[in-house]
Amino acid sequence: MPKPVIEDAIVQEKLRVRPGRHILPSLFRRKMPSQRNRNDLEEIEYVPMHDGQEPEARAGGKPPLRLIGFLLLVILPFAASSIYYAFIASDQYVAEARFAVRAVSGATDSSENSDAAGSGGGAASALNMRSASQDAYVVTSFIHSTEILRRIGAKLDYRAMFTKQDADFLTRFNASQSDEEFLKYWNDHVTAYIDVTSGIITLKVRAFAPGDSVKLADAIIEESEKLINELSERARNDIVRSMKADVEKSGKAYGDTLVALNQFQNASGLLSPQTQAKSSGTLLTGLLAKKMEFETRLFVMRQSKAESSPTYQQLNLAKDSLDAQIEKMKSELTGPENASLAKALLEYSRLDTDRLIAQKLYESSQKNYDAVLAEALRKTLYLAVFVKPALPEESIFPRRVSTPLIILLALIVTWATLSLIWASVEDHRI
Predict the structure, then answer these.
(1) Which residue ranges traverse the bilayer (predicted)?
(2) For labelling, which of 35, 110, 317, 415 has a CA lying 20 to 30 Å from the CA of 246?
C-alpha cells in the first residue's frame, strides 16, 4: 500500500471519536466558548494499525456514569415497587363513619330564665360555656391515644387484626414491637379529622379484613360515646360541686353572724338594744314632762309664799326623785363607754348588719345552686352518629397503579437533582 494512503488512514483513525461517548448525550455539561471549536483530547481514541488494514470500531465500551445512576436510582426501585404493589401488597379495607358531638338542654319557662339571669347571674349559664366543637377535638385526640387502645383491648384483640400472617411482611405489624410502636401503626391505619365549619368528625379504619375494619370502627364509636358521657357528667358534677361549696361557705358565714349576735345579747342582757333605747327614750320623755309639771307647781307655790306648806315639801321631794331617775336614765344612754346603751346599740347594729349581709349572700348562693342544678340536669352532651360503619365490598388500599407512578416521579426528581449537583461540581473543576 502506498505510504500517503497509509498516513491518511492513520490520521483518520486518530481523529475518530469513541462511539460509546455519545450513547447518552451530556445534557448538563457545558464548555467554555474557547473550547467549543477544538477537539477535546479526552474524546479522541488512538487506535493502532494492524498489518495495514483499517481496524473495526469497538462495539462496546465503559457505560456512562449517569446511565448507571439512572438504572440504580430510578429503574430498579421503580421496578421493585411495581412488583410489590402488583403481586405482594395485601388488600386493605376501609370502614368509614361520620358523627358529631351535640349539646341539648331542656326547655325552661320565661320565669325560670329570668330568675336564673337575675339571681344566678353568670353562674347559671356556666354550663352553656362548654363548646361542642371543643368536645369534638377531645374525641379525635382520644381516638389517637393509648387510652382508647386500653379500653378497646378489654373486649377486642385488636393486635391480632394487624398481625395476620396472610398479610404482606411490609404492611403487617410485628407482634414483638412495643405499645408505643403500635400507637404509631394505629394512627396510620385509624384516622379521625374534624370539618371545622360543621364540626363533623369523619372516622376511617383500615384493616386487612372487611369485618375487622367494621368491628374496630364500632368499638371506637362506642368508646367515644362513653367518653362524651363521662365528660358531660364530670363537667356537671364539677359545676354543681363548686356551687355547693359556695352555698356551704355562705351558710357557714351566716351561722357565724347569728352566733356572734346571740353571744352579744347574752353578754349585754339586751335582746334588742334598739327597742331598749326606744323604750328608755319614751320613759325619759315622760319623766321630763313630769318634772316640768312639778317645777311649774313649785313655782306657783313660791309665788304664793307657800314654801313652808307640807304640799310644797312633798312636791320638792318628788321633783328631786324625778331628777335622780332622769340622771340615771341619761347615764344609761350616754354614760361611761363600757356601760353605755349607745355603745351597745352601735355594737348591735354592726352585728345585725353583718347578719343581714350574710343572710342575703346565703340566699343568693342558694338560688344560684338551685338554678345551676336544674340546668345541669337538663343539659346533655351526646354523640350523634349519622353515617354508621358499613361492610366494605372492595379494597381501597393499596393503590397499585398510582402509588408506583408517584414513586417513579419522586425517583426521577431525585436523580435529576443529583445529576445537576454532579454537573455543577464538574464545572467547577474546569
Answers:
(1) 67-87, 405-425
(2) 110
